[in-house]
Design a protein that fits this description.
- It is a single chain.
- The chain is built from 7 helices and 10 strands.
- The chain has 254 residues and is an alpha+beta fold.
- The strands form 3 sheets. Strands 3, 4, 7, 8, 9 and 10 form a 6-stranded mixed sheet that branches. Strands 1-2 form a two-stranded antiparallel sheet. Strands 5-6 form a two-stranded antiparallel sheet.
- Strand 1 and strand 2 form a beta hairpin.
- It is globular, with a radius of gyration of 31 Å.
Length: 254
């Protein structure tokens, strides 16, 4: 390319127009081939691209908290105002922990009474899978939950990710209210197993499980997470006498 008096010669001008035409034609080709305009990545293949780790994002979503043990009792012992009140207690604690976008259910059964049919805890909690506040898998399905789950003192965490006191701790709070048999079914018979379907904080009794899977011996009931023994009453003081604090298991049903 030559300059004459500070101006490009005609041959220089022609050369520049050829370069411009090549760029325009090349861009048009990329649009026709890809359906999109050229980007810095297509014009410069060596430029670093932004990578989204889809597997990591999916894993974070899939292991979000969907199970916890309540960190506290409302102060009314086993009287939650029925199943609706127990569910509300789970929901409120979940919301305070930042997990209120899900629908939470208390793992409680009720017995047939006053024309009302029995309700089984296993039928109220959705289909799984469920993870604790640390993202650890508790169970994949309802069947696995009642056969070979991962509930123990280290995994049965509160909604804030705290460990619940168990056998050997002071105070022992391993009795978790369920009112259920080991397979998650409401008990039959005439004995009160649900503190009057979770409306009594005085007379009655409720079936409890041990979240730490420990008891006075190694017989199956003592190691059961959901059906270990009956409480001595329904008030908070009565529940404490056998190692409880009126706590519940909460599951995200959806």
């Amino acid at each position: 390319m030559r300059y004459t008096g500070g101006m490009l010669t005609n041959s220089g001008n022609a050369f520049i127009w050829v370069i411009i035409a090549v760029v325009i034609v090349g861009g048009a080709y990329l649009v026709m081939r890809n359906g999109t305009a050229p980007t810095s990545e297509t014009l410069n293949p060596t430029a670093p691209a932004t990578v989204v780790n889809v597997d990591q994002a999916q894993e974070t979503s899939d292991t979000a908290m969907t199970f916890f043990v309540t960190s506290t009792n409302p102060g009314t012992g086993a009287n939650f105002g029925g199943l609706a009140g127990a569910d509300r207690h789970c929901q409120e604690l979940a919301e305070a922990a930042g997990a209120g976008e899900r629908t939470w259910r208390a793992y409680l059964s009720t017995t047939a009474s006053a024309g009302q049919v029995a309700i089984n805890a296993r039928d109220r909690i959705g289909t799984g899978p469920w993870h604790n506040a640390a993202g650890v898998l508790i169970a994949n399905t309802v069947a696995q939950l009642h056969d070979n789950n991962n509930i123990n003192k280290q995994t049965a965490l509160s909604e804030t990710g705290q460990t619940i006191k168990g056998r050997g701790d002071t105070p022992n709070e391993h009795d978790i209210l369920t009112g259920s048999s080991s397979d998650g079914i409401a008990a039959t018979g005439t004995d009160d197993t649900t503190c009057s379907n979770w409306t009594s904080e005085s007379e009655g009794s409720a079936i409890v499980g041990h979240h730490d899977r420990q008891g006075l011996d190694t017989n199956p009931p003592a190691l059961s997470w959901n059906s270990s023994h009956a409480s001595r009453g329904c008030s908070l003081d009565n529940l404490r006498t056998t190692g409880g604090a009126g706590l519940l298991y909460c599951f995200a049903a959806e």
